[in-house]
Write a structure and sequence with these properties.
Elements: H1 18-30, E1 35-37, E2 47-48, H2 52-55, E3 66-69, H3 73-90, H4 103-108, E4 113-115, H5 120-131, H6 133-143, E5 156-159, E6 172-179, H7 200-210, E7 214-220, H8 224-232, E8 313-314, H9 317-330, E9 335-339, E10 343-350, E11 355-358, E12 362-363, H10 372-391, H11 415-420, H12 437-444, E13 448-455, E14 458-459, E15 464-470, E16 496-507, E17 512-521, E18 527-537, H13 540-558, E19 567-573, E20 579-583, E21 588-589, H14 606-621, E22 624-625, E23 634-636, E24 642-644, E25 651-652, H15 656-672, H16 684-687
Bound molecules: adenosine-5'-triphosphate.
Length: 693
């Protein structure tokens, strides 16, 4: 398990004296990394992932405003590696240390080639994951475990994010970072850390609790285009406006969010040449606090022909920088590495001046001063040092800005991925959700929606415009299918449903679920609100699943089934990319109510178990089989009322035998704690067609 990564000494030659040890280290770090070779693939698009939807909603104070060259950055990083190697040289404690084996680099490369078995960014990511194994061991030994006789693998590198798994058709993926080993409960794995430098343990624990992803790596597959993008990054211009195209919208009251500060003692002082405030974004916003704008709301004029169409943006130097920057804001990283396995650039995000400082281009297999692996040692030390030095500065930062990425992880088979294998998560908020029917009723009759994001790094400068594409099932249970209304040139404020997305509460195969506040005006002009849940789907398959799920809810609503979410419709993003299912909040999952986090025992009362079975009977009576009954889809609300959610793989008109088997499976789950591994999403077998008898 995760513990394996800690304290695993690499077998090495006999003890060294100080000079010999350093010499051996230098030799290891001078080795040239192998050349990356990937299996050929048919077509991969070097496009901007659909996450650009979220990037349009980054708070103004966190946006990228300026790019500046940092010609001394590589020297700074090289100097840092040198400093810690010198310290190692003078530190007598290491006598008796066995060296990590240089040969391990040899085992990953044959004839100077690193052959990745996988394709796309996954294949490229294997390269740093394995080639930087030694630099990671060495940097953690030099910086964190100064007295250790071992070269343990404490720093992990990999990809996270099952919540929006890497699109296999894309040749770029920005979700890579450093991380620490964790235990089953996602706590920093502190066993076998007796040699941690004094006083560091609480800091590491705090760092891990705030952000378990350190640094941002944007990985592209190697190609002439990827190389030209990396080369041209310093010529990228900042677009004056990359927000949604809505105009005349109401502005939310100012947020109380505090943005994280930079380190008071930057690891890269010579590169920070700018001290003046960031240039303005050039965008004119309506005056703040204009809760009720006198202007009409104007939907964007440039629209995608079909809002459900999933399309990648163009990957240009501008959008590549934007991609890395947005991810760094999300993970609160100061360092962004752009790599395509052949060329690389290191960038520093300076928060105060909203500036990205860009290093010179690094030719991975050619660079000699410093050699690539030595540069990596300095880089990893720099990333850690910066993150730790910012810890005490950012104590005041609102916990809201802490990342919401510690949700369901993508288990990839690299070191970080393996330990990140995790169930989908509900935050188990104690907040009580209200659901005044008046707000829902009014919203049910409106077709135009303004979406604001307000959580973490998001504070929409401009809301996105959405149009209804499926009806509210509460206003009319047996709602007719609606054709998407045509978009009007302008809307009065009272014609708009305002939704303000809060933090994620869970993720799954269909999309990302958020706590959301819904606001509309009533007939008297008063604002009425309701707390709801919104599930967002981006990819074409997700959207298809979501529309199927809606059809299932329609059937359930027509049969007046209680104990399932109330559904308030689907809205499509006018500028493309996303569709959203609006529904009622159903509480916390049984998984989160486990008696003991280490066990699979569920904490339910007899009456709740009976109620879950009664809900399933009603679902079956309506002619629906759920096909995915797991503790993550069984919820108890604040009043202890049972709910069954997640009908994206449900089937209509199932066989009697299928229904009986599903009921027995639910009984097993509720009474005997027998259920599928919650780490994994709906298994293909559960989606299989209804052929059973
Ligand atoms: N109406 C709701 N009320 C409360 N929490 C919800 C609601 N809908 C979704 N969630 C949370 O979000 C998580 C993911 O939602 P859901 O299961 O609907 O997504 P999915 O993409 O269909 O997942 P799966 O991969 O299991 O099919 C749930 O496990 C739950 O924690």
């Amino acid at each position: 398990m995760a513990d394996n990564f800690v304290g695993r000494d690499m077998p090495g030659p006999l003890d060294q004296d100080a000079a010999g040890a350093v010499e051996q280290l230098e030799e290891i770090l001078s080795a040239q990394p192998p050349i990356l070779a990937l299996p050929p693939v048919m077509s991969l698009r070097l496009g901007y992932p659909t996450r650009f939807f979220f990037d349009k909603h980054i708070a103004k104070s966190l946006e990228l405003r300026r790019i500046h060259p940092a010609t001394t950055l590589l020297d700074e990083i090289k100097g840092l590696a040198g400093h810690y190697l010198d310290e190692f040289r003078t530190n007598v404690q290491h006598t008796g240390t066995s060296m990590p084996q240089r040969e391990s680099l040899g085992t990953i490369a044959r004839n100077g080639l690193f052959k990745s078995r996988e394709t796309g960014p996954r294949g490229v990511a294997r390269y740093p994951a394995e080639c930087t194994d030694l630099p990671r061991r060495i940097s953690s030994r030099l910086f964190l475990f100064r007295e250790s006789p071992e070269w343990c693998q404490f720093l992990l590198w990999g990809r996270i994010g099952r919540e929006d798994e890497a699109d296999p058709r894309l040749a770029v993926d920005e979700k890579h970072s450093l991380g620490f080993p964790v235990d089953q409960e996602w706590k920093l794995c502190v066993r076998n850390l007796p040699h941690l430098a004094p006083g560091l343990l609480p800091d590491l624990q705090e760092l891990h609790s705030r952000s378990d992803l350190i640094g941002t790596w944007v990985v592209m597959t190697p190609s002439a285009k990827a190389e030209s993008l990396i080369t041209a990054l310093d010529r990228a211009t900042i677009p004056s406006n990359c927000n949604a195209g809505t105009k005349g919208f109401p502005v939310l009251p100012p947020s109380t969010r505090l943005d994280p500060p930079d380190s008071p003692e930057p690891v890269w002082p010579t590169i920070l040449v700018l001290n003046e405030p960031p240039p303005s974004s050039g965008q004119k916003l309506p005056s703040a606090g204009a809760e009720r704008s006198s202007e009409d709301v104007l939907p964007p004029t440039t629209r995608r022909p079909r809002s459900t169409a999933y399309d990648y943006g163009e990957l240009t130097p501008e959008s590549l920088v934007q991609l890395g920057w947005a991810r760094a804001v999300e993970t609160d990283s100061s360092v962004i590495v752009f790599t395509c396995g052949t060329l690389e650039r290191i960038a520093i995000r300076h928060r105060k001046t909203q500036t990205l400082y860009l290093s010179d281009v690094i030719d991975i297999t050619e660079i000699r001063h410093p050699p690539y692996l030595r540069l990596q040692v300095g880089l990893f030390v720099a990333v850690l040092k910066d993150a730790l030095s910012r810890l005490h500065e950012s104590e005041v930062v609102s916990p809201e800005l802490r990342r919401s990425t510690r949700k369901r992880r993508a288990p990839e088979d690299d070191a970080l991925g393996n330990q990140l294998k995790r169930r989908k998560t509900a935050t188990g908020s104690s907040r009580t959700f209200e659901r005044p029917q008046s707000a829902i009723k009014i919203a049910g009759s409106l077709d135009f929606m303004l979406l604001y994001m307000r959580y973490g790094m998001h504070d929409s400068p401009v809301p996105a415009s959405f149009i209804r594409s499926a009806p509210c099932l509460v206003s009319s249970g047996d709602a007719e299918e609606i054709t998407r209304p045509s978009v009007k040139r302008k809307y009065l404020r009272e014609e708009c449903v305002v939704v303000i997305l809060g933090p994620q509460i869970g993720t799954g195969a269909t999309g990302i679920a958020h706590k959301t506040s819904l606001e509309v005006f009533d007939a008297q002009g008063r604002t009425v609100t309701a707390d709801i849940v919104v599930k967002i789907a981006f990819l074409a398959e997700q959207q298809q699943k979501m529309r199927h799920e809606f059809q299932v809810y329609r059937r359930l609503a027509a049969h007046k089934v209680k104990g399932v979410p109330e559904v308030y419709g689907i809205f499509d993003d006018l500028e493309g990319g996303a569709i959203m299912l609006l529904m009622s909040y159903c509480g916390t999952t049984l998984w989160d109510f486990r008696v003991d986090p280490m066990s699979y025992d569920l904490d339910t009362k007899a009456s709740q178990r009976t109620r879950f079975l009664a809900i399933l009977d009603a679902i079956h009576a309506a002619g629906v089989r759920h096909h995915d009954l797991r503790p993550l889809n069984l919820l108890l609300d604040d009043n202890g009322e049972a709910h069954i959610i997640d009908f994206d793989v449900a089937k209509l008109d199932p066989t009697e035998g299928g229904k009986r088997r599903e009921r027995r499976a639910l009984e097993d789950l509720l009474f005997d704690g027998v259920y599928p591994d919650p780490s994994f999403p709906s298994l293909p077998s559960t989606i299989a067609s209804e052929t059973d008898g």
